[in-house]
Write a structure and sequence with these properties.
This protein is mainly beta. The chain has 1 helix and 5 strands, in the order H-E-E-E-E-E. InterPro entries: Spore_coat_GerQ.
Length: 100
């Protein structure tokens, strides 16, 4: 008798768990692999009427866990962006996304 009040499932009825992914491709890693490339970056700032949707163009300079730095080649200004507002990006050249 089961004293823990837990049901016992026969081994023939158990399902195998999915194999864990050994390596995941995170946005941070993809951007880091493409430092030095020119891209167009799209952001949405929810809750703001003045800064609702914004587009920035620049060269990826540095990438952190929750942010990345872009340099505008026209005026040489640097911008720090948070991933939380980041929607997507376009690049004028092929990008490297293979982390292996």
């Amino acid at each position: 008798m089961d004293t823990n009040n837990q049901s016992i499932i026969p081994s023939s009825q158990t399902s195998s768990l999915p194999t864990p992914i050994s390596e995941q491709t995170y946005l941070e890693n993809i951007l880091r692999l493409n430092i030095g490339k020119l891209g167009t970056f799209y952001f949405t700032y929810t809750g703001s009427e003045d800064w609702r949707d914004r587009i920035y163009k620049g060269i990826i300079e540095q990438v952190g866990r929750d942010h990345f730095v872009v340099r505008d080649p026209k005026n040489q200004k640097y911008y720090i962006f948070q991933f939380v507002y980041f929607d997507w990006a376009e690049f004028d050249e092929p990008i490297n996304f293979n982390t292996r």
